[in-house]
Recover the amino acids of this structure.
């Protein structure tokens, strides 16, 4: 009953906007030209959409926050409006929070902590934070909201069902990108609701940044950390967007602070491959000596070495204006759907190369301008932006916005380019492009190629050379034949239904029977004639991160 009620509520809240977006594209949803809308109309619709999302609760709020940086999926003014959604909701009552603590730690909060403040320090969609004292130290206790796991699981199940029909009826790169975002979110939010994972992330960062005295994270009290309870050091510092007084009084250096925070995120992205996925001013504190404290490690993006290598390859291909190298890298990163031909994507690659050329010259001076133009390209062309680059661009825009807040002449692109030079050695070493490592890789690849070529020639001489078809191609052909057979069976069934209905009508003269039979036959013919063959199968085989009814351990 709860599932049905929640489904109805979500459908009632979002279906008018879905219908409006579809009519923007086709006046009659499937047919006709798009309806022309004024910018003011879109602005009003974006405001209404934001209010509806906020009313739907934590799952949709957090999902909208992720989508607010995906200009390759949604255009303005929708991005700006949903970007205003704050992860702030009314706190749960103290008794329910104390019940979670007792269930997880096995003791009442008053027996575990020297002092526990009932009034929360902060309340977000998934959890809330309380101050406490433990062993004479000030700590914060992060507690998962009661019942939030079941709510998120139900909302994601509803979202996947809606996306199934969107992929079925309106297959395009925007819907595919949206599907990818929701699928990735389903995994990330499951990790975020397990505070043991956040504690492990913090330990990983502390180990990786042991040599950096100016960057740190809160200390975790492992003996009091469970799946739904996380106890950490209470960190005193100033939010990074409230440092104007320290800069004016000379207690902190603006340039040193920006180098510290920007360098930390560059290192995460290109050196360590372990990126903080929730960068906003509330999670970045600066101590009096300039030390950066990064909070909230519930959501991280792990970037494999091959991904970093491919990103670097694309960047190098752009620098030497190698269109084929750019397109190859885009295919490897999953930015291009396999069914899109190289010819179709060549112009998009040229457009991306032109944007980067302007960024290297004087045409673009801000990271936000660069990112906006890249996102516009992805929105226009059938390209899907990799999630790793989305979070990296999001961090870049945030950091530039912080710098611009204190210095109206702050040039984010120039600043980042200068820091990248300092990281050049680390980047080359971790991606295997340090001169010694690169030379070894070249020699190894050359030897492998020569051995393969010699074996190929030997097989040809012995008349043992065989050409094998990839199993994926065979499976596609089999699937095509099966679907054509299914379409033929539907046509036969539709014809048989119409004939049998007509015979029965002649016998019993039932107009209701005739109408129902002919409508069923017409529906089957519509399915056969108007739906493409590949849509007769399930296009959405998701490995969902969370399922309703799943028990969390």
């Amino acid at each position: 009953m709860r599932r049905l009620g929640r489904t109805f509520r979500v459908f009632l809240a979002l279906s008018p906007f879905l219908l409006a977006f579809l009519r923007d594209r086709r006046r009659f949803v499937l047919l006709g030209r798009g309806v022309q809308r004024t910018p003011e109309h879109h602005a009003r619709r974006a405001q209404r959409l934001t209010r509806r999302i906020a009313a739907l609760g934590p799952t949709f709020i957090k999902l909208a926050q992720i989508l607010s940086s995906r200009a390759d999926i949604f255009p303005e003014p929708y991005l700006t409006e949903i970007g205003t959604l704050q992860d702030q909701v009314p706190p749960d009552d103290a008794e329910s929070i104390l019940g979670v603590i007792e269930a997880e730690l096995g003791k009442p909060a008053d027996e575990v902590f020297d002092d526990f403040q009932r009034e929360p320090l902060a309340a977000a969609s998934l959890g809330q934070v309380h101050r406490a004292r433990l062993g004479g130290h000030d700590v914060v206790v992060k507690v998962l909201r009661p019942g939030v796991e079941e709510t998120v699981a139900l909302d994601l199940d509803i979202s996947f069902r809606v996306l199934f029909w969107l992929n079925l009826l309106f297959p395009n790169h925007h819907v595919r990108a949206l599907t990818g975002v929701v699928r990735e979110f389903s995994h990330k939010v499951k990790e975020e609701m397990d505070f043991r994972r956040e504690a492990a992330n913090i330990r990983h960062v502390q180990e990786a940044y042991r040599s950096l005295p100016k960057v740190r994270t809160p200390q975790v009290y492992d003996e009091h950390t469970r799946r739904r309870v996380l106890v950490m050091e209470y960190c005193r510092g100033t939010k990074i967007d409230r440092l104007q007084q320290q800069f004016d009084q000379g207690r902190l250096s603006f340039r040193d602070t920006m180098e510290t925070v920007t360098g930390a995120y560059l290192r995460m992205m290109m050196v360590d491959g372990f990126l903080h996925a929730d960068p906003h001013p509330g999670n970045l504190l600066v101590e009096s000596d300039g030390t950066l404290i990064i909070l909230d490690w519930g959501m991280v993006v792990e970037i494999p070495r091959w991904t970093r290598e491919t990103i670097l390859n694309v960047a190098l291909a752009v620098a030497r204006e190698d269109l084929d190298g750019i397109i190859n890298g885009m295919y490897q990163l999953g930015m291009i759907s396999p069914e899109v031909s190289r010819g179709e994507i060549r112009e998009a690659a040229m457009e991306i190369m032109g944007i980067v050329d302007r960024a290297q010259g004087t045409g673009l001076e801000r990271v936000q301008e660069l990112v906006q133009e890249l996102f516009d390209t992805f929105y226009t062309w059938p390209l899907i932006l990799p999630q790793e680059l989305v979070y990296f661009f999001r961090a870049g825009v945030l950091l530039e916005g912080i710098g611009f807040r204190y210095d109206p002449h702050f040039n984010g692109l120039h600043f980042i380019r200068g820091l990248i030079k300092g990281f050049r050695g680390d980047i080359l070493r971790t991606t295997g492009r340090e001169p010694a490592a690169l030379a070894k890789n070249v020699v190894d690849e050359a030897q492998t190629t020569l051995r393969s070529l010699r074996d190929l020639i030997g097989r040809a001489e012995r008349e043992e050379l065989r050409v094998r078809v990839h199993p994926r191609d065979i499976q596609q052909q089999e699937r095509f034949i099966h679907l054509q057979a299914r379409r033929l069976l539907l046509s036969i069934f539709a014809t048989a239904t119409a004939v049998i209905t007509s015979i029965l009508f002649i016998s019993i003269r039932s107009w209701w029977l005739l109408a129902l039979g002919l409508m069923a036959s017409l529906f089957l013919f519509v399915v056969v004639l108007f739906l493409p063959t590949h849509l007769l199968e399930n296009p959405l085989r998701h490995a969902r991160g969370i399922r309703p009814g799943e028990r969390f351990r």
In short: The first helix runs from residue 2 to 25. Residues 51 and 85 are 9 Å apart (CA to CA).
